[in-house]
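Q: Hi! First time doing this. I have a protein sequence and I read that you can turn it into a structure. Is that right? Here it is:
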Amino acid sequence: MRSIIASFLSVITTITIFFQCLFGIGGLGFGKVALVLEKDTYPVGTETIAAVLYNCTREPILVAPYAYSLERWEAEEWTPVALKDSVEIPIANFFLQPLQSVGKSFRLTDHESLPAGRYRLQASGSTYAEFELV
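A: Yes, that's right. Below is the predicted 3D structure, encoded as structure tokens:
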């Protein structure tokens, strides 16, 4: 019974993502990988940002759940924000299938204190999401 329910929910999720991609809902679109944050602004000192990574392409994409980059908008360009030396990123990868999504968490505490400003996260080498710390 559990496997039937899980299969049913998987089909519903795929159909939902298909229509979101088809109609461009939430910044999604066919042929794109999209990273959607829960908010556009966060208070300075936020520890973790939750997001959802959507694959609206026809091919599976490689996802490294612990690997991402953070950049800050400075002097009219994106400048990389380094990780703390103590942060170790485990090697863990999986493929996100077409018309599927996965939740991702980004730990801002892996970086030195971040001042207020405009930032963007890059996930899986294919998509960016911008946010502000206020």
